[in-house]
């Protein structure tokens, strides 16, 4: 795909971790939609530290936001019906992007979850958050998912962001928006017939992130292909069912999510983020997969 993508490399460690110094007005005053999204992410994380996880999520989730617990649920009602967990959740973005139309964006990066009582070891993982700018309002979270792994993140600590110039995107955004769900159904059929490596290989690039529960995240085409090949040898996808999809106004950034089952009986959910210039194959920007072991067989009476 030959879309014109502006990639920004920043080595400022301060950008990676939350700060309570931002306000909603500060974020909206920034000129770049990418900077606004990163600012809101930091504000979100800072509120989690200062006011707790529940208050932060209720304050930043859009009314129709989706969380995965473990399957997709209405985020606000799910959070409102539960007590604030006694944990300290710290996170910060390593990668972020926005659509060329400037109203849909995403962030991903490492998190650390600590028991406030100090009785449990810290938990580590990566999150993926999808953001949408409300009309005449702030950016809000419309979808949030993540994976966990055993050891702290051992990958790069420098931030990168990407934006697409709409002038490099071919006309036909309406058609692309309508095609995302259809494309996802086709990919699901291929996954069950041909496996993950062969199905996703045409869409992987140097910037693709693979977040797989229990594993440190990977970025890049070759590491991604090697990993998917290994997963195919371990277990093949036997069921893939799309549950939802959406895209930016320009049709250059789209997302899809659904349910999965593999040949070992593990079941779970996936999330995929796509970029498209309207020329050639879309690019898989990020894929999140969480599979849980099958339940134990019922004991005879």
Which helices and strands, and how do they pair?
Elements lengths: L4 E6 L13 H5 L4 H19 L1 H8 E8 L3 E3 H6 L6 E5 L3 E4 L5 E12 L7 E11 L5 E11 L9 E6 L8 H22 L1 H5 L8 E4 L5 E2 L1 H14 L2 E11 L5 E10 L4 E9 L7 E10 L9
Parallel strand pairs: 2-8, 5-9, 10-15
Antiparallel strand pairs: 1-9, 2-3, 4-6, 5-6, 6-7, 7-8, 10-11, 12-13, 13-14, 14-15
Helix pairs in contact: 2-3
What does this structure look like?
- The protein has 301 residues and is α+β, with helices and mostly antiparallel strands.
- Helix content is 26%, strand content 37%.
- It is built from seven helices and 15 strands.
- The chain has helices spanning 24-28, 33-51, 53-60, 75-80, 173-194, 196-200, 221-234; strands at residues 5-10, 61-68, 72-74, 87-91, 95-98, 104-115, 123-133, 139-149, 159-164, 209-212, 218-219, 237-247, 253-262, 267-275, 283-292.
- Helix 2 (33-51) packs antiparallel against helix 3 (53-60).
- The longest helix has 22 residues, at 173-194.
């Amino acid at each position: 795909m030959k879309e014109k993508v502006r990639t920004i490399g920043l080595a400022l460690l301060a950008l990676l971790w939350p700060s309570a110094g931002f306000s909603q007005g500060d974020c909206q005053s920034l000129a770049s939609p990418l900077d606004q999204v990163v600012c809101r992410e930091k504000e979100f994380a800072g509120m989690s530290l200062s006011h707790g996880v529940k208050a932060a999520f209720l304050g930043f989730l859009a009314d129709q936001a989706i969380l995965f617990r473990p399957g997709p649920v209405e985020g606000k009602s799910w959070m409102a019906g539960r007590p604030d967990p006694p944990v300290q959740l710290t996170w910060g973005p390593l990668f972020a992007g926005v659509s060329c139309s400037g109203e849909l964006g995403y962030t991903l990066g490492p998190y650390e979850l600590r028991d406030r009582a100090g009785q449990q070891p810290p938990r580590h993982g990566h999150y993926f958050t999808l953001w949408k700018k409300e009309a005449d309002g702030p950016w809000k979270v419309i979808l949030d998912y993540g994976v966990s792994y055993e050891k702290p993140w051992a990958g790069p600590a420098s931030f990168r962001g990407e934006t697409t110039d709409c002038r490099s995107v071919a006309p036909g955004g309406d058609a692309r928006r309508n095609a995302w769900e259809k494309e996802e159904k086709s990919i699901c059929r291929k996954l069950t017939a041909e496996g993950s490596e062969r199905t996703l290989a045409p869409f992987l690039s140097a910037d693709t992130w693979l977040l797989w529960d229990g594993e440190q995240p990977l970025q890049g085409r070759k590491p991604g292909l090697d990993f998917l090949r290994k997963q195919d040898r371990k277990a093949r996808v036997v069921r893939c069912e799309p549950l939802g999809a959406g895209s930016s106004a320009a049709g250059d950034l789209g997302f899809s999510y659904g349910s999965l089952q593999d040949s070992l009986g593990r079941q779970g959910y996936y999330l995929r983020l796509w970029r498209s210039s309207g020329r050639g194959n879309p690019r898989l920007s990020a894929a999140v997969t969480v599979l849980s072991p099958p339940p134990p067989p019922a004991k005879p009476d």
